[in-house]
Amino acid sequence: MYRRNRVSPNSALSTPNSALKRQHRKQAVPKIIAILNGKGGVGKTTTAVNLAANFAKKKKVLLIDADIQGSASWWFGRSQQGMGFDLSQETDPALLSDLGKITGYDLVVVDTPPALRSEALVAVVAIADYLVLPTPPSAMDLAILVETVKEAVIPLGTPHRVLLTKVDTRSLGEAQEAKNTLTRLGIPTCNTFIRAYKAHERAALEGVAITQWRGGNAREAELDYRRAADELQRDWRK
Ligand SMILES: Nc1ncnc2c1ncn2[C@@H]1O[C@H](COP(=O)(O)OP(=O)(O)OP(=O)(O)O)[C@@H](O)[C@H]1O
Ligand SMILES: [Mg+2]
C-alpha cells in the first residue's frame, strides 16, 4: 500500500546517468544519516522516526526503512495526517548502496535492522555520512554497543555519536556513568539523554511522531528528541 507521501527511491534512482549528473549540479546531494546498533529493541526505530520528524521542521526529509521487520513503515502506515517527511521501505542492498543518488531531499534518515552482518545494514553504513547509535545505558547494552562501534563504525571512520535511550528518569546517574565510560573509551556521546516515557510507545501505536503527541509527558518526551536533533545537527556542521 502506497500512501500519498510514501515514495519509491527507485523512481529517483532510475534517472538516466546524464540527467542524474545535471540534477546533481543543480541539487545538493542529501546527507545520509544511518541509525544503527547490532542489538534489538534499543530504540533505533523510535529514534529514526522522531529525529526525522524534528529534522523535517526545516528540511526536506526521506526516512528509509531498511529493516525487513518494517517497524517504521508500520508506524508511518498508522499515521492519519503524515509526519512531515516521506517514507520508503527498501531492503535491497544494491538499491541501498545507491541512496546517495537520490535527489529532492536535504536529508535521508535510514532505520536499520538489528543485525550487523545483514547485507542491507552493511550497504547503508558504507555510504552513510553520519551514524547515530542509540543504546540504553545498562552495562550489558553498553558492552554490545562497544562491539558495534569496534566492528561496524571505527573501520570506516564515519563520524558518529551514541545516543543514550530509554533512560530511567529515576536513575539519571546511570546514564551519566554510561556517558563517562563511553567518553573514556573515546566514543562520542550526545549530552542529551532520551528518557523512558510510555508516551513513546503510545505515539507509535497512534501513528504519530512525538512532536505530534498530545498525551502524558508529551512535553518532556518531545523535548528530548528535539534537543538530540539540534545537538546532532550542530555536530555534523562542524
Ligand atoms: N525513550 C523510550 N521510552 C519508552 N519506551 C521506548 C523508548 N524508546 C523506545 N521505546 C519502546 O521500546 C520498544 C523498542 O523500541 P524500538 O522499536 O524503537 O527499538 P529498535 O531498536 O528499533 O528495535 P528492533 O531492533 O526490533 O528494530 C518499543 O516498544 C518502543 O516504543
Ligand atoms: Mg527497529
Question: Your description of this structure?
Answer:
There is one protein chain. The chain is globular, with a radius of gyration of 17 Å. The chain has helices at residues 9-13, 17-26, 44-55, 71-77, 93-97, 119-127, 139-153, 172-184, 198-206, 218-237, and strands at residues 31-35, 61-65, 86-89, 107-111, 130-135, 160-167, 189-195. 44% of the residues lie in helices and 17% in strands. It has a single domain, classed as Rossmann fold, CATH 3.40.50.300. The model is unreliable at 9-25 (pLDDT under 50). It is an alpha/beta fold and 238 residues long. Bound molecules: adenosine-5'-triphosphate and magnesium ion.
Topology of this protein?
Blueprint: H1 9-13, H2 17-26, E1 31-35, H3 44-55, E2 61-65, H4 71-77, E3 86-89, H5 93-97, E4 107-111, H6 119-127, E5 130-135, H7 139-153, E6 160-167, H8 172-184, E7 189-195, H9 198-206, H10 218-237
Parallel strand pairs: 1-4, 1-5, 2-3, 2-4, 5-6, 6-7
Helix pairs in contact: 3-10
Bound molecules: adenosine-5'-triphosphate and magnesium ion.
Residues 44-45, 67, 71, 111 line the site of magnesium ion.
